[in-house]
């Protein structure tokens, strides 16, 4: 269980302990600690908060599943925004519950995820369906909903073949600002270099203007 609020984390652990179906093998307050505990205990399931101090729950999920792809992650968070939901799914989470969920809903979610299924809070499930439907019918400018308008503009110019200096001149900003935008784009698209970002952009229809 990964959450930086000890009262919530310990209370949920105690509630799960009463069920007898699950055993909490470790608790962590940070993403870095979670990775250490996962390596030490080899959990089957991880309940992951997103708003962690230091390394985010998204990045922790990504690193955890890269090292241990058999682990199943259920996100449990206060974050209701679309970007957090999409980022969690892209990182590999199998479920997304809001912290207002009752104990029975949490147990059902853990059972479902533990058996290889996916589960979402009702509101988040409807929102996710809407996002996928919008994505399938959206024009290229809506292809990457987690990007800001300026980041999408930078990505479009990258996909057209412009260099950082040319983009800076086009947008009337500094090279450093462009590089900062590109770093954020890489993180959000989960790519490691410019070529991969351009390929993703062109697949979505960017760079053709």
From TrEMBL:
SUPFAM superfamilies: C-terminal effector domain of the bipartite response regulators, CheY-like. It comes from the Bacteria. The modification 4-aspartylphosphate is found at residue 49. Signal peptide: none annotated. InterPro entries: CheY-like_superfamily, NreC/VraR/RcsB-like_REC, Sig_transdc_resp-reg_C-effctor, Sig_transdc_resp-reg_receiver, Tscrpt_reg_LuxR_C, WalR-like. Residues 1-114 form the Response regulatory domain. SMART domains: HTH_LUXR, REC. Gene3D superfamilies: 3.40.50.2300. The keyword Transcription regulation applies. Residues 140-205 form the HTH luxR-type domain. Keywords: DNA-binding, Phosphoprotein, Transcription, Transcription regulation. This is Response regulator. The lineage of its organism: Bacteria, Bacillati, Actinomycetota, Actinomycetes, Streptosporangiales.
